[in-house]
Write a structure and sequence with these properties.
116 residues, mainly alpha, 5 helices, 82% helix
Length: 116
């Protein structure tokens, strides 16, 4: 199974990892603020499983952690805004979009600049 997952393109693994992380964070947030009793416990367990999946997928890729971190942060920002809008109905503001553009640009520099 591990060999099969490692054959997936690193960008796909990165998208899966960031989606799992942000979804897990959103589910935990819902458990803390919007749920009670057994449903809250179920949400905490679901959030924990999603976060475990995030850690697993992030570390399956063949890229060095130092190179993948820039692209990871850029992807995380984009996925975070999408999940925030889908789950919580909160659209990004202009400062978030401008800051996000800087995050994405920085992530691309860190991941792809072939300096000396």
């Amino acid at each position: 199974m591990r060999n099969l997952l490692q054959s997936i393109h690193p960008l796909v693994l990165l998208l899966i990892a960031t989606t799992l992380e942000v979804s897990g964070d959103a589910v935990v947030r819902l458990a803390i603020h919007d749920r009670t009793g057994p449903v809250r416990i179920g949400f905490f367990i679901a959030g924990a499983l999603l976060l475990l999946g995030y850690g697993s997928f992030l570390n399956l890729g063949p890229l060095s952690f130092g190179r993948v971190v820039g692209l990871y942060i850029a992807t995380l920002f984009v996925i975070w805004q999408a999940i925030n809008f889908i789950v919580f109905g909160s659209a990004p503001t202009l400062p978030i979009l401008l800051g996000g553009a800087l995050i994405i640009a920085g992530g691309l520099v860190v991941s792809f600049w072939q300096g000396s």
